[in-house]
Amino acid sequence: MAHRWTNTLTRRDATPYEGFLNRRQLMAGMAGLGLAGLAGTAARASVQDMELNSWEEITNYCNFYEFGTGKDDPAANAGQLTTKPWSVEIGGLVDRPGTYDFQDILSEMTIEERIYRFRCVEAWSMVIPWNGFELADLLAMAGVQDGAKYVAFETLLRPEEMPGTRYPVIDWPYVEGLRLDEAMHPLTIMATGLYGKPLPNQNGAPLRLVVPWKYGFKSIKSVVRITLTEEEPPTSWNKANAREYGFYSNVNPNVDHPRWSQASERRIGGGLFARKQPTLLFNGYEDEVATLYEGMDLAQNY
């Protein structure tokens, strides 16, 4: 499927980490895997000359509470997760409900590279080269019915492989949701890899949501269920603390978290004392997504 979006980082705006395949090798390798639509056709982003985070940073500094609450817990504990075979149950207000095999899904999708900013609600950020396909294409496969207004997501719950779920950190399984127009937006993808490699377990293998203008916890990992619904679905952090975590969770430097400012962020990879940088409204994707929220009070609908 051709690109229908413009505002994202490209490799001309980024420097890959040392030792990674150069651009020519990467493109050749992706061509051999049948991947298409690389982000080199996209326009320059509103923030330029940003370096990609390294494979080591992305895969060793992340949140996946099913494997522990420390930043390095997912990398230490997620290796035991079984990701083959994998399937996704798609139901609710769809024409073709059922359990879809992951490999069958991949056979119908166009995998692209998307270099996106990633902003955590904890006020740290990265720049990540995802590989994946547009969520809209997956929803089209299932056939969205007219009454659908929201998309609900659910993460795998397998306590014997996910040690973090043995503790009541949140109400398991992890659930998330989007408004249908957010889910259908061309920036919204289902990631299957990063840096041209399969998605590591600790980053949400084999299939995770990525919504680049929202805080990272909206990008639910290891998805096993997608449900189209007329009603706004519950979301894990909103259930845990509605005052601190709203349904929308759009990146917004003008709306602080009750316990810290969201006006700036610490870029991972710059060291503990790295200079903070200003946070951009909608994480820099304002031109693409602001129309989704016209007339809404973004402080009230946080």
Task: Give an overview in words.
The strands form two sheets. Strands 3, 4, 7, 8, 9, 11 and 12 form a seven-stranded mixed sheet that branches. β1 (87-92) and β2 form a beta hairpin. The protein has a single domain (11-293), classed as Sulfite Oxidase, Chain A, domain 2 (Alpha-Beta Complex), CATH 3.90.420.10. With 302 residues, it is an alpha+beta fold. Residues 1-8 and 11-47 have low confidence and may be disordered. The radius of gyration is 18 Å and the shape is globular. The longest helix has 10 residues, at 23-32. It is 17% helix and 21% strand.
- Unreliably modeled segments: 1-8, 11-47
Count structural domains: 1
- Could you name the CATH class? Alpha Beta
Architecture, according to CATH? Alpha-Beta Complex
Strands, count: 12
The CATH homologous superfamily name equals: Oxidoreductase, molybdopterin-binding domain
CATH topology assignment: Sulfite Oxidase, Chain A, domain 2
Helix content: 10-25%
Secondary-structure class:
alpha+beta
Distance from N terminus to C terminus (CA atoms, Å) equals: 32 Å
- SSE succession: HHHEEHEEHEEHEEEEHEEH
Average residue-wise pLDDT: 88
Q: Helix segment count?
A: 8
The amount of beta strand, in percent, is 15-25%
